[in-house]
């Protein structure tokens, strides 16, 4: 087993070394870079080309985030919207009220656990099917790709409705196949979260599968052949060869999955009818919607949105910092 490990490590280092060597010329290449520095006009030209896109991004992203943060510091309810009372500055009052609410912490914990389960399940299913795509022939590979892309292209509302019909206590085929009678999957808290998790994984794994499959196809064939000749199992090849070489791709799909699954809204809202019985299946996105539009507490809803934004930014920055400490190129 030690020989296998050394061979795999050498093969991976060799392949990575070729790539890094190609992208980072050393020694003479650094001193031979005699390209003239761009002048003031040349420096401004790229920004001129980027200006239309930056204006669009500023209008679609920056300004809404600014308004979200501004409203979170105001007293902004239906009375202020209708003009019955003046808008007043509350400072951190909305955040103090939010953090003092026990329901907020319960919903936050449920959101973190649910998002983590969705991310792990999505990555496991997507990576397993990506490896499967490299093992099957062209026709089944094409059929699997089309089926996955069909699931990916299905709107979340439509997919959630179909999954509800599949698990319907009266007419759903799943209960008949399992002999569960009129068992309601959306009545219990855990079973409702599990049902929503299945739908989220079903519509999310195609992105992971296609991305990881493209990365596997880019791995040099001689590296995989060397590992197979050394007697490594398929799991050992994935763990010791493919996973280290695909780490930049896995970082991207992990961060994307964390962002998407942390702010799931449609599936929870449709499949649990707005958060389940007595709000037992609430997540932060649905909780913010209920605070803002069902209770007309727009400032509290905005404060929840700001908290979600900061959590996602912190998760992304911490994860990227850990990878940079390990010497990974992003």
Automatic annotation (TrEMBL):
Origin superkingdom: Bacteria
Region (Disordered): 18-39
Ranges of compositional bias, category Low complexity: 18-32
Subcellular location, record wording: Cell membrane
Listed transmembrane segments: 47-66, 107-132, 144-167, 187-216, 237-259, 298-320
Keywords of the record: Cell membrane, Membrane, Sugar transport, Transmembrane, Transmembrane helix, Transport
CDD domains noted in UniProt: TM_PBP2
SUPFAM superfamilies for this protein: MetI-like (SSF161098)
ABC transmembrane type-1 domain span: 108-319
Annotated PROSITE patterns: ABC_TM1
A single GO BP: transmembrane transport
GO cellular component: plasma membrane
Short name of one Pfam family: BPD_transp_1
Topology in the lipid bilayer: Multi-pass membrane protein
Membership in a protein family: Belongs to the binding-protein-dependent transport system permease family.
Protein's name according to its UniProt entry: Putative sugar transporter membrane protein
Originating species: Streptomyces ambofaciens (strain ATCC 23877 / 3486 / DSM 40053 / JCM 4204 / NBRC 12836 / NRRL B-2516)
């Amino acid at each position: 087993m030690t020989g296998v490990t050394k061979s795999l490590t050498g093969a991976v280092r060799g392949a990575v070394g070729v790539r890094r060597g190609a992208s980072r010329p050393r020694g003479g290449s650094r001193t031979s870079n005699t390209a003239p520095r761009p002048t003031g006009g040349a420096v401004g030209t790229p920004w001129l080309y980027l200006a239309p896109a930056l204006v669009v991004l500023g209008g679609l992203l920056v300004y809404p985030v600014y308004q979200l943060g501004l409203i979170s510091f105001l007293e902004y309810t239906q009375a202020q919207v209708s003009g019955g009372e003046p808008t007043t500055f509350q400072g951190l009052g909305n955040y103090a009220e939010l953090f003092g609410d026990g329901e907020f912490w319960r919903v936050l914990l449920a959101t973190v656990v649910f998002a983590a389960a969705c991310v792990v399940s999505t990555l496991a299913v997507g990576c397993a099917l990506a490896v499967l795509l490299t093992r099957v022939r062209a026709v089944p590979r094409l059929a699997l790709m089309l089926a996955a892309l069909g699931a990916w292209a299905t709107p979340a509302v439509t997919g959630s409705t179909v999954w509800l019909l599949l698990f319907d206590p009266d007419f759903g085929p799943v209960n008949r196949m399992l002999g569960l009678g009129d068992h309601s999957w959306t009545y219990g808290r855990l079973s409702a979260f599990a049902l929503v998790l299945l739908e989220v994984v079903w519509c999310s794994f195609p992105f992971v599968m296609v991305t990881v499959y493209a990365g596997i196809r880019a791995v040099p064939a001689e590296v995989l052949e060397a590992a197979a000749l050394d007697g490594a199992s398929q799991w050992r090849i994935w763990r010791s060869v493919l996973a280290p070489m695909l780490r930049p791709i896995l970082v991207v799909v992990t961060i994307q999955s964390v962002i998407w699954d942390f702010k799931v809204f449609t599936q929870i809202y449709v499949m649990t009818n707005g958060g389940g019985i007595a709000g037992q299946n609430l997540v932060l996105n649905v909780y913010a919607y209920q605070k803002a539009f069902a209770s007309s507490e727009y400032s509290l809803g905005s404060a929840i949105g700001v908290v979600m934004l900061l959590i996602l930014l912190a998760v992304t920055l911490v994860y990227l910092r850990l990878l940079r400490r390990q010497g990974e190129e992003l």
